[in-house]
Amino acid sequence: MSAVQKYSGNDADIRLWSFPGGIHPPERKAPANQAPIQRLALADEFIIPLRQHIGALSEVQVAVGDHVLKGDLLSAPGIEHGLPVHAPTSGEIIEIGEFPLNHPSGLSGPGIRLRSDHLDSWGERKPLADYQQHNHLEVLEHLQHMGIAGLGGAGFPTARKVASAQGIDCLIINGAECEPYIAADDRLMREHADEIVRGSLILQWLTHAKSILIAIEDNKPEAIAAMRNALAQANENTLATQASELALKVVVIPTKYPSGGERQLTQILTGKQVPANGLPADIGILMHNTGTAWAVCRAIDHGEPLLERVVTLTGEAIRRPCTAWVPLGTPVQHLLEQVDFQPEAQQRVIIGGPMMGFTLPHLQVPVIKTTNCVLAPTRKELPPAGPEMPCIRCGACADVCPASLLPQQLYWLANANDYDGLKAHHLADCIECGACAYVCPSEIPLVQYYRQAKAEMREQAIEHHKAEIARQRFEARQARLEREKQERLERHAQAAKAREEALAARKQQPQASDDGAPRTPAKPDANTDPVASAVARAKARKAEREAARAESKESPAESATEAAPPEDPKKAAVAAAIARAKARKAAKQKDEDS
């Protein structure tokens, strides 16, 4: 554990801890945060991806040709409880299909194309005027229906994050915004501090947290002052009567990258370390971004779905850098046209900051819920990485790793596709901050190797899960077939037993005598086989029929003999002898049966 320190930038002495590693890259936030948040002209067309969050896809609820209003539902959560998306403005649905994703992979995904009518007409809004008169489930369902997701990281659905957290002691509102160039949260805190405080109190009511800490790096003095003023007003305002009962503080932390990481900020404020493969909620802490708190306030108090967010537009290739309210689904190309983009040869456009961002394959990619910055640097300002050279084992990457990992070892294991080794060295704890690649003298793109290895491990886990499901289904089928076989054998055994019982009952039934009186059946011979008796009776009946036919043929034969002498007396004698023998045998068999 790092040494404890007291930081004088807070109203009271608050103990702060430190996390291992970290770096201090040039901040370069000033170009974009000097003016208030702007509103740019609406784009002619919007591309709204159906997945802008962690989780399942939502199901389309509109058709091509439909006219929608701002805030109307475009897709609804399916059976796997994804997040819905809403119309960012009014207009007409002109296409439903596959579109470029705002993702490092550069792949395409399902989405909706909307042609704006430039009226920006709102549809129906349904706020929860007094949310405390509703139960927690109703409020969480409202946030889910409004499509609220985390605006500071991976975009985890807020309602699910809150609902899954139990026993929360501290709610942290993350306003650190530690990555260079990005100033979206800074400007939001300056201009909408009261709504951030309001949203924080709503989240506290939902989580029953005992305290709220709003963390801000010390390089944002205007945001710190605005948040403190908002807290002072909240203590006196009936808008948040419970504020006086809470330990609600603005905590100023030293500027250090990546202090805005969930695990790192948790350690700075509480001294607690999130367990490997765990979450802050496992140690009684829940963290949300300042933008998420603002979106919660707008959804509860105004009934507004998450339709827009603050985006930083910066870089020396942009002549008018700024922060702007950007409707979700706006193509990046339209944004750059609004801020006087002057591209150079082989111009790069990065989504996110220089440390954790990724370069766009083209400019038709839309802004989504997790887009906080569009960076267009010149080659002089942010030179591209040089050719990758062999690792010299200097250990600089391990010194700056905020998760106390071994980046060099992870690099070798990733190259060797040693997934078991990567798991053993806790690759899942890597937050992909890029500090290791920033200090690497060999210019090895370490984070790219880690991202690729993580993706391959996810695919492997998915395939393993599919194989496990297939195995379970096969074993269940085999068990069912065996069960059905045993059931058939049981039915056959029961039927055979029933037939034997019925046969025994028929043998024991009394038979009538010649005078009509019931006759006690003769005691069956123990050596008599029922099957043999049945065969004997059948043979007797057959012999009787043959004897009758023989007798019926005998008279015509005799008359024919009297009329004319037989042609062969010997044959006639043999035939008569045979007939007599058959008749005697039949009579004898009949006597035995009776």
Please tell me about this protein's structure:
The protein is 40% helix and 16% strand. The chain has 594 residues and is α/β, with parallel strands linked by helices. Among the domains are: 1-34 and 127-303, 3-Layer(aba) Sandwich (Rossmann fold); 389-484, no CATH class. It has a six-stranded mixed beta sheet, sandwiched between helices. A four-stranded antiparallel beta sheet has the order 4-10-9-6, with no helix packed on it. Helix 5 (193-207) packs across helix 6. Mean pLDDT is 86; it is low at 1-8, 238-245 and 555-564.
Instruction: State the fourth-level CATH superfamily of the domain at 1-34 and 127-303.
Output: NADH-ubiquinone oxidoreductase 51kDa subunit
Broad CATH class of the domain at 1-34 and 127-303: Alpha Beta
Mean pLDDT: 86
- The end-to-end distance, rounded to whole angstroms, is 108 Å
Number of strands: 21
Secondary structure blueprint with pairings:
Elements: E1 5-7, E2 14-16, H1 30-33, E3 38-39, E4 45-49, E5 58-60, E6 67-68, E7 73-77, E8 85-86, E9 91-100, E10 108-116, H2 136-145, H3 158-164, E11 170-175, H4 184-191, H5 193-207, E12 211-217, H6 221-236, E13 247-253, H7 262-270, E14 285-289, H8 290-302, E15 308-314, E16 322-327, H9 332-338, E17 350-351, E18 358-359, E19 373-375, H10 396-400, H11 407-415, H12 419-424, H13 435-439, H14 446-508, E20 511-512, E21 518-519, H15 530-563, H16 569-593
Parallel strand pairs: 3-16, 11-12, 11-14, 12-13, 15-19
Antiparallel strand pairs: 1-2, 4-10, 5-7, 6-9, 7-8, 9-10, 15-16, 17-18, 17-19, 20-21
